[in-house]
Recover the amino acids of this structure.
């Protein structure tokens, strides 16, 4: 399917603007799309403020920031795996569920403090990711498995995780030992106490991941692999090690996203990751698949879009907004905001 | 525990059980034939088949109940609507990479299901649609009357017969198509799209036709599903049914029609029979176990025997 | 084409096997099984034909899914009914045996239909359940009248069920929401002291929630009150903050929210986080009624909330006896609709006894007769006497734990007891008062 590649240069795609802030440069130097996006968001915000008032628009924006945080965390992991391995991991949502339930096990069943539970969730999910790589993906790659085969295996894996969790913990909703009702008020807006923690933790972790990708040698290697795995191997990068590292980060972030999502919303059920999965795809594709900062931006934008949409349409349709964005982006600009066009055809 | 065990034995030897399995297996054979056309013969990864099934079934239900059409008029029109949906989705997105297309199709299927859940006035929402099958029931009763006395209380039997007749007809048509020049072009597209394009074939048009046909097959499967339950609800169209379809497809072999039917029979026998396994587990855990088994089966099949029971290895493996 | 011919042969064998199986196993019915028997005709059979049949009562339970909190107690209630029956048959002078088969409906209409079919093919002649209104609608349409097996739902309250064209095979021991939504409106009026108030309405987006809140809105507005909403929300949403903000907007005088626990855990948390929600102003219904607030619901989302639910009469020997029976059995604690399932199971048996055989159409014909006047009244405490009377061909009027029941032609109980409950500061539900609602004669 590599035929028909469009060789028209994507806007400023490979230039590294000198003197630009690291964050901008990490977007692949695509300042153009970034500015357009910011301008678009600002324009929409203005329109909403005029129509519905500053308070409502701002409050929904806060809500959007909260959901955007866990969308972003989940999306970054999904995009890292895709970028490096070209694997569309339909089991990614269930990694979030897995993380959430490990946290439940440690926090509620074993009574440990939440921080310990979060760490345990991250570690356990990362381990599961590495396990899947060793046991399933690497052998299949070695055998020259095709796209369909791999995708179907991720689906099977998704079933196994989800229903395995259901077998152990049942379908009754569970709750983490967190405060879901405390809220703080600032500037006339409200945010839940735990929601705020989610946003802060998410932001810090995502920045750390960004720095890692940009500044460390491991990060550079991951990006090299994601550009062209064959070339990376030839230049002496230990691809196995980097792939494992990718899984550790991707799955670890997924586990973290699952716990944070549960903490913010209050309850967990075996389906939680699956419900989020399509929104995660939307975020990934919106941001440009393979691009970690794109996933972050995509996640935040998706959260904003969903919550702002409740001002205009019936809240029941909120989730469809995510799907709609997904399809729209794929049709109009498949490389998303920050991706590269050659990747998409 | 023993009453449960007794039920499991009885159920498995009862005609009701096998007829029920047969109807489901037939329904999903038609469903999976669509997948086979797309994946096996054209090289398109269609993860949205449940969405086409939903569009067909709901279009039929809405036409009969809201617009008060006759069932027989609604069926072909609903099929056309599903085909149109296939073209609509395919037009802008078939030029994308295979995995992107897969994501688009899943998103499409979820949107359809979501609309079904929320457009209460049209689709009945989560409450569903009832009462569209009166005309079918009349036919069913007539067929029942033709059967020998001893079978006349098996009220699902007419549906079983009709489903498998449909399977036979559709399989026959697909076989003819496959051997025709049209089918050969599809095969060529699957093997090497660029070459086919270089030969002057309008690849997009062929792919669209493939999607439209698959959508039609999905819609027909949807009708049988609806007639089986006499009830339409959004949860019958969750993505897990597309994935069950893929399991059937892989099990039966990507290129074998008979394999699809066999695979469908095996999977549905397993899924239905496991409702009654007496294990030292609570009922809800058994329910979950069934799907864990489906997941493991899918992984193992794809990894170790991607050609399924009946297929040949070279037929499998879609590379990007 | 080696593989081709081999597989064609396999398919042929498979097809023949299926058809042979269908034809050959056709007469595999158990003695008391449903489905295969000849249909009864005409008037209620008063003369007992046979008092030594074997009956299998199928119990459809939501063991998993949204209504799973009701599953285990429901099962216990059915088991208790059967043990009471077994204890009384000897004394009553009959030689029937009754057994229960249960199946999980997964709180889903599709699974409920398949579970019902499988119970019937396993020999059940009467089904207690299913529970969710959406499940009952599906099972009624696809299974009950087609396979001529009556279903008696303990908890499906959707008003549409009364109007189903079901040939008399769909019954319920729970009253229609037509009654409950009105009853709730009356209760709100009483609690607030009038109708000149604005209520913020919200409900979960399904048959139960939508149906209920629409009827409530009509009832309240007929009284001259005002409403905002309804805000309908989906159980699968990633968050509910925006919906919660909508519900508390404008500081309404009270909120009416119709939901089940699984979703309310999330919605309730969002509501409290708005900082403007006062559970003391919340009114709700049976979906959120449980003996105590479950762990998954933040307490502040329900403490002080009031609501109505179908209940059991407050006092009376029957109710106390049932409570004792429940406690002595151990296991699951009391739960909403448990007594309704007990009554449903009982009725399946008593109707079969009255028909003189455990077969679907016969039971369906007798359900109204054994539950309603004329006839000698008895409760499960006098079960042996009741059995003896039925066996002797006398008319009876069974009164359940939940009240007189007295089915009408639509299969609805004509009299229902509702309880007004409130969640106290300790999270425990207490019943404040009861009232009886009678369906308006159609």
């Amino acid at each position: 399917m590599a035929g028909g590649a469009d060789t028209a240069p994507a806007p400023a795609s490979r230039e590294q603007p000198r003197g630009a802030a690291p964050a901008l440069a990490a977007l692949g130097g695509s300042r153009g799309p970034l500015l357009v996006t910011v301008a678009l968001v600002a324009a929409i915000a203005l329109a909403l403020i005029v129509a519905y008032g500053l308070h409502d628009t701002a409050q929904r924006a806060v809500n959007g920031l909260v959901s955007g945080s866990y969308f972003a965390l989940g999306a970054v992991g999904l995009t890292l795996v895709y970028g490096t391995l070209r694997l569309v991991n339909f089991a990614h949502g269930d990694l979030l569920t897995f993380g959430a339930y490990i946290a439940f096990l440690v926090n509620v069943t074993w009574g440990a403090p939440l921080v310990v539970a979060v760490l345990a969730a991250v570690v356990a999910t990362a381990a599961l990711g590495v396990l899947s790589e060793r046991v399933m993906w690497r052998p299949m790659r070695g055998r020259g498995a095709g796209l369909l085969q791999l995708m179907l295996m991720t689906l099977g894996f998704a079933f196994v995780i989800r229903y395995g969790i259901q077998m152990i913990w049942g379908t009754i909703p569970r709750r983490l030992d967190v405060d879901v009702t405390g809220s703080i008020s600032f500037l006339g807006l409200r945010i839940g106490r735990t929601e705020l923690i989610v946003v802060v933790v998410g932001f810090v972790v995502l920045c750390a991941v960004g720095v890692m990708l940009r500044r460390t040698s491991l990060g550079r290697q991951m990006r090299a692999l994601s550009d062209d795995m064959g070339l990376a191997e030839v230049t002496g990068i230990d691809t196995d090690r980097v792939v494992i590292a990718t899984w550790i980060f991707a799955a670890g972030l997924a586990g973290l996203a699952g716990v944070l999502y549960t903490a913010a919303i209050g309850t967990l059920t075996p389906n939680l990751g699956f419900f989020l999965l399509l929104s995660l795809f939307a975020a990934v594709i919106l941001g440009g698949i393979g691009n970690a900062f794109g996933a972050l931006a995509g996640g935040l934008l998706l959260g904003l879009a969903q919550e702002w949409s409740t001002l205009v349409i019936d809240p029941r349709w909120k989730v469809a907004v995510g799907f709609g964005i997904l399809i729209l982006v794929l049709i109009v600009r498949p490389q998303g905001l920050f991706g590269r066009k050659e990747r998409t055809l | 525990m023993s009453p449960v065990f007794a039920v499991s034995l009885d159920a498995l030897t009862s005609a009701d059980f096998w007829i029920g399995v047969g109807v489901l297996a037939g329904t999903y054979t038609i469903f999976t034939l669509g997948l086979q056309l797309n994946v096996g013969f054209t090289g398109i990864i269609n993860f949205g088949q449940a969405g086409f099934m939903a569009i067909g079934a709901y279009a039929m239900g809405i036409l009969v109940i809201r617009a008060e059409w006759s069932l027989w008029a609604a069926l072909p029109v609903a099929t056309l609507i599903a085909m149109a949906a296939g073209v609509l989705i395919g037009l802008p997105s078939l030029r994308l990479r295979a995995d992107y297309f897969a994501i688009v199709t899943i998103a499409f299927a979820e949107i359809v299901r979501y609309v079904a859940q929320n457009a209460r006035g049209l689709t009945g929402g989560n409450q569903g649609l009832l009462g569209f099958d009166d005309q079918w029931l009349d036919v069913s009763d007539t067929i029942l009357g033709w059967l020998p006395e001893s079978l006349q209380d098996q009220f699902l039997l007419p549906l079983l017969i009709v489903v498998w007749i449909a399977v036979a007809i559709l399989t026959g048509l697909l076989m003819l198509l496959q051997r025709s020049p049209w089918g050969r072009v599809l095969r060529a597209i699957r093997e090497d799209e660029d070459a086919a394009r270089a030969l002057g074939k309008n690849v997009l048009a062929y792919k669209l036709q493939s999607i439209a046909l698959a959508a039609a097959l999905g819609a027909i499967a949807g009708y049988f599903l609806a007639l089986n339950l006499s009830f339409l609800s959004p949860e019958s169209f969750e993505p897990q049914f597309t994935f069950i379809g893929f399991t059937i497809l892989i099990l039966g072999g990507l290129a074998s029609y008979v394999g699809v039917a066999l695979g469908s029979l095996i999977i549905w026998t397993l899924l239905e029979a496991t409702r009654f396994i007496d294990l030292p587990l609570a009922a809800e855990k058994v329910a979950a176990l069934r799907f864990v088994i489906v997941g493991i089966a899918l992984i193992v099949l794809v990894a170790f025997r991607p050609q399924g029971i009946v297929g040949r290895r070279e037929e499998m493996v879609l590379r990007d | 084409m080696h593989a081709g011919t081999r597989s064609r042969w396999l398919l042929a064998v498979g097809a023949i096997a299926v058809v042979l199986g269908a034809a050959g196993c056709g007469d595999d019915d158990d003695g008391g099984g449903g489905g295969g028997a000849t249909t009864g005709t005409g008037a209620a059979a008063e003369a007992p034909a046979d008092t030594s049949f074997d009956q299998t009562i199928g119990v459809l339970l939501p063991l998993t899914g949204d209504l799973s909190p009701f599953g285990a107690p429901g099962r216990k209630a059915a088991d208790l009914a059967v043990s009471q029956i077994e204890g009384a048959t000897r004394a009553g002078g009959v030689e029937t045996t009754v057994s229960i088969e249960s199946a999980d409906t997964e709180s889903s209409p599709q699974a409920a239909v398949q579970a019902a079919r499988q119970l019937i093919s396993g020999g059940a002649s009467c089904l207690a359940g299913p529970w969710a209104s959406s499940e009952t609608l599906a099972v009624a349409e696809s299974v009950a009248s087609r396979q001529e097996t009556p279903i008696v739902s303990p908890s499906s309250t959707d008003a549409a069920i009364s109007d189903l064209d079901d040939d008399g095979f769909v019954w319920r021991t729970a009253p229609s929401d037509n009654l409950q939504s009105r009853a709730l409106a009356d209760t709100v009026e009483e609690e607030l002291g009038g109708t000149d108030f604005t209520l913020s309405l919200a409900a979960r987006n399904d048959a139960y929630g939508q149906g209920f809140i629409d009827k409530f809105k009509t009832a309240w507005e007929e009284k001259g009150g005002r409403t905002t909403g309804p805000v309908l929300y989906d159980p699968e949403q990633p968050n509910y903050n925006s919906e919660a903000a909508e519900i508390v907007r404008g500081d309404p005088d009270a909120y009416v929210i119709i939901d089940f626990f699984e979703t309310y855990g999330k919605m309730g948390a969002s509501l409290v986080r708005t900082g403007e929600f006062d559970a003391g102003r919340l009114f709700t219904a049976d979906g959120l009624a449980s003996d105590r607030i479950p762990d998954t619901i933040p307490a502040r989302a329900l403490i002080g909330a009031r609501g109505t639910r179908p209940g059991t009469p407050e006092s009376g020997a029957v109710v106390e006896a049932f409570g004792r029976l429940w406690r002595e059995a151990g296991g699951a604690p009391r739960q909403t609709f448990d007594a309704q399932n007990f009554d449903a199971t009982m009725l399946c048996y008593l109707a079969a006894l009255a028909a003189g055989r455990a077969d679907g159409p016969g039971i369906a014909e007798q359900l109204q007769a054994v539950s309603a006047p004329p006839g000698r009244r008895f409760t499960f405490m006098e079960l042996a006497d009741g059995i003896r009377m039925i066996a002797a061909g006398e008319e009876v009027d069974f009164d359940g734990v939940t009240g007189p029941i007295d089915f009408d032609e639509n299969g609805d109980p004509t009299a229902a007891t509702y309880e007004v409950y409130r969640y106290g500061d300790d999270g425990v539900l207490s019943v404040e008062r009861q009232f009886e609602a009678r369906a308006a004669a159609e």
